[in-house]
Amino acid sequence: MNEAHATVIGWAAADPAYAVTASGVPFLSLRIGCTPRRYDRETGEWVDQETQFMTAICRRALADNVRASQIGRGTPVVVTGRLRVRQYERDGQWRTAVDIEAATVGHDLSRGTAEFTPMRKATLTDREPRAA
């Protein structure tokens, strides 16, 4: 497929917004910020560039797992997924939004530690018995 995939390293710019759609699909939106830094040889110091913001869109099990993973505002994260750039009009002005349809979301372990708990898949014995 000819789709743009991206990996973003940044932090959660806001607490995630979680909802369940009318059809019962879990949905989570996570605003991400990243500030590139460049080394200025003239001053010998690191200089922050303009902060970039984007939204990670998570669905189904990923949405539930992000919600359960204590990711909140300021948490360092790594997100990979399909890049989507869209334009929309608000207050008479055209704006551009950058979204990532997330395939994976995780804590940035270069900035801290995490404890992983694998999700257990439901088996037939875990479910309600089927009606005959």
From TrEMBL:
<dbReference type="InterPro" id="IPR011344">
    <property type="entry name" value="ssDNA-bd"/>
</dbReference>
<dbReference type="GO" id="GO:0003677">
    <property type="term" value="F:DNA binding"/>
</dbReference>
<keyword id="KW-0238">DNA-binding</keyword>
<dbReference type="InterPro" id="IPR000424">
    <property type="entry name" value="Primosome_PriB/ssb"/>
</dbReference>
<protein>
    <recommendedName>
        <fullName>Single-stranded DNA-binding protein</fullName>
    </recommendedName>
</protein>
<dbReference type="Pfam" id="PF00436">
    <property type="entry name" value="SSB"/>
</dbReference>
<dbReference type="InterPro" id="IPR012340">
    <property type="entry name" value="NA-bd_OB-fold"/>
</dbReference>
